[in-house]
Amino acid sequence: MPDYHFEKVSDYLWELPQTGGMRVPARIYATQKMLEQIRNDNAPQQAANVAHLPGIVSASLAMPDIHWGYGFPIGGVAAFDCKEGVISPGGVGYDINCGVRLMASRLTREEVTPRLRELVNQLFRDVPTGVGAAGALTVPVDKLKQVATQGARWAVEHGFGTETDLEYIEENGCIEEADPSRVSAKAWQRGQEQLGTLGSGNHFLEVGYVAEIHDENAAKVLGLFPGQVTVIIHCGSRGFGYQVCEDYLSVMDRAAHKYQIALPDRQLACAPVQSEEGQSYLGAMRCAINYAFANRQVIAGRTRDAFSRALGIEEKDIRLRTVYEVAHNIAKFETHRVNDRLVKLCIHRKGATRAFAPGHREIPSAYQAIGQPVLIPGDMGRYSYVLTGTQKAMEETFGSTCHGAGRALSRVKAKKVASGRNIIRELEEKGIIVRGQSRRTVDEEISEAYKDVADVVDTCALAGISNKVAQLKPIGCIKG
Amino acid sequence: MENKTAEPGSEEILPPWLTALDHTADAGIGVTANSLAELLARAAWGMFSVIADVRAVQPRETQPVIVEAADTQALMVRWLSELNFRHITEHRLFCNFEVTHCTGNRLEAAVIGENIDPARHTVFTEIKAVTFHGLRVEQTDGGWKAEIIFDL
Predict the structure, then answer these.
(1) What distances in angstroms separate CA A396 from CA A318, A391, B119, one per listed residue?
(2) Best interface-test mutation with A: which of B125, B131, B147, B150 has the largest number of A CBs within 10 A?
(3) Taking CB atoms and an 8 Å limit, are B125 and A200 in contact across chains?
């Protein structure tokens, strides 16, 4: 186990002081108990490594769901000066703009339960998971370039969802300055047949209900009530984004040499934000951001159709509206207050979620009083959370918080734990119907493979960087 | 093999030259072989065993593959990435890998497999990327060995 010398800042915040080549300290949000677990991973070292990068501002931050990632830790937040700083594909991750949409219906759990199996089966048919599954949209490259610049709006204009959905998506479902000329032929090819698909791994579509309300006022503003049926869509930019990341990891590897950036780990490969390579990655990454926004929008549209078909109720009576959609693997420019000055920064969030405070101009007008909704999915057997952003997050974490539970067991170990058990039947006995591409997929994603997301969320709430609004529990799940 | 998925509790039996590496977030394989060409071929089989039930794939069609890279490690990553790319974009699964010519930075191969048939093939997972993280491709006293981590 690496020997870390953490200094306690508060009960929920620990610091690795600036040493050696670190330009700033690394700070980890965790309870003492969680920190013991986190120590066993290489992730604190990764947070410290990020602190070496040129132009990093204030601190290399890690949320309570921190775990090992490629170069940068997952659960990491790093802000870079736009003039002196760098941009790194490793700080965003392979699944560019992986994110979560929460939808809430007018229906209650009791109204849906009698036809739950039909609903889950319909969703499994209508929302393809990935390779080998039929039903994805085939979009030729010239049209895909429109997807890459228009994002969720492209999907709305092609009949998936409504204009109102766009109001409730981070960046309104489209980031500007996406540059299709920076995307490789391979990425376009990978993206052609994957729009409207979930993908595999930890991605899912979940039908659930509001199990507990923690903040009545915020829940009311978000239109959430106990027993209400909800949908969570968790997926990203699919092969398109993975290929963009892969292409630019080698570009950045060369760029780091070219600009003589000293890296404690080669996987932190990066380039100055203002360099040709940095701008090129930004242009391509933004295409992938928009692809992911469009992808979730298509899935949202298909989810509405599936509900209507399976339940035999008209869409207007189900009224499955978008509560909010967040990105948790992204880099973008934001203005934050640093040492009493407003500065434009390049914020990397890798397995971390934007959590802006009440009154921020980028929050939908309906939510101005409560802050930006934050959606934290858990595992398929337990629960997920709705949070909101806080002023303290603006002050301490560049308006960021956690993103999920984080794995506790490897896939090999999870399969061993699931061995001899019928996980699908076990979940059914708990009232949760699961459909997966294969039994192996479901076994690898058992609850025991994940940390308890409640611990992660409670730590963020106690640290003051988020406010707990509601807990959602699953009743149906489809997995890639 | 008609049976698409393992029964609950049954362990998947891997060939003696292939091991599943324990990695918290992702998946990895360890491979041993007598030569670099055999190592590359076995690594490809190992990767497809992560993706699908490779034993259910029929050797129906052959495709040529040529890959070049700066060194042996990059060659391994490029080769596997190319096969993953073809699997995704052409909806194919491969089961036989014949590396016919191989130096440390170039390989020529024939890969054999068939189109994905959802009635016969179960695709377990997608591989987002073949990574350089923890990558090992090295000659040992008795032959060659590799360790490769896939981002899932």
Answers:
(1) 40, 9, 53
(2) B125
(3) yes
How far apart CA A466 and CA A357 sit, in angstroms, is: 9
The pair phi, psi for residue A392, each rounded to 5°, is -65, -35
Query: Cβ-count burial of B63 within 10 angstroms (0-12 exposed, 13-18 middle, 19+ buried)?
Result: middle
Burial of B141 (0-12, 13-18, 19+ CB in 10 A): exposed
Mean pLDDT of A267-273: 96
Which distant-in-sequence residues (6+ apart) come within 8 Å of A396 by Cβ? A464, A465
Contact A228, A377 (CB under 8 A): no
- For residues A113 and A53, what is the distance between their CA atoms, to the nearest angstrom? 52
> In this complex, do B24 and A70 lie within 8 Å of one another by their Cβ atoms?
no
Nearest to A384 by CA among A281, A313, A456, A322: A456
- pLDDT value at A134 more than 80: no
Mutation target vs B (from A141, A410, A424, A435; most B CBs, 10 A cutoff): A410
CA distance linking residue B64 with residue B57, whole number of Å: 18
| Mean pLDDT calculated for residue range A210-226 | 98
Asked if A403 is an active-site residue, the reply is: yes
Contacts of A411 in chain B (CB under 8 A): 23, 26-27, 152
Interface confidence, given as ipTM, is 0.91
**pTM of the shown model:** 0.96
Residues in CB range of B134: below 8 A, 6 or more apart? B28, B147, B149
Q: Which residues of A35-58 are buried (b: 16+ CB within 10 A; e: fewer)?
A: bebbbebbbbbbbbbbbbbbbbbb
Contacts of A263 in chain B (CB under 8 A): none
* B contacts of A67 (beta carbons < 8 Å): 24-25
What's the CA gap between A36 and A33, in Å, rounded?
A: 5
Mean pLDDT for chain A? Answer: 95
Q: How many C-beta atoms surround the C-beta of residue A27 within 10 A?
A: 22
- Inter-chain residue contact A412 with B21, CB threshold 8 Å: yes
HEC letters along B106-141: EEEEEEEEEECCCCCCCECCCCCEECCCCCEEEECC
pLDDT in tens, B89-124: 999 999 999 999 999 899 999 999 999 998 999 889
pLDDT digits (tens, 9 = 90+) for A308-348: 999 999 999 999 999 999 999 999 999 999 999 999 999 99
Pairing of strands A400-401, A353-354: antiparallel
Q: At A245, phi and psi to the nearest 5?
A: -60, -50
Task: Please answer yes or no on whether A201 and B128 come within 8 Å at the CB atom.
Answer: yes
B32-66 pLDDT, tens per residue? 999 999 999 999 999 999 999 999 999 999 999 99
Report the Cα A382 to chain-centroid distance in Å: 18
How far is B89 from A192, CA to CA, in rounded Å?
8
Q: For residue B106, how many C-alpha atoms fall within 13 Å in the half-sphere facing its CB?
A: 2
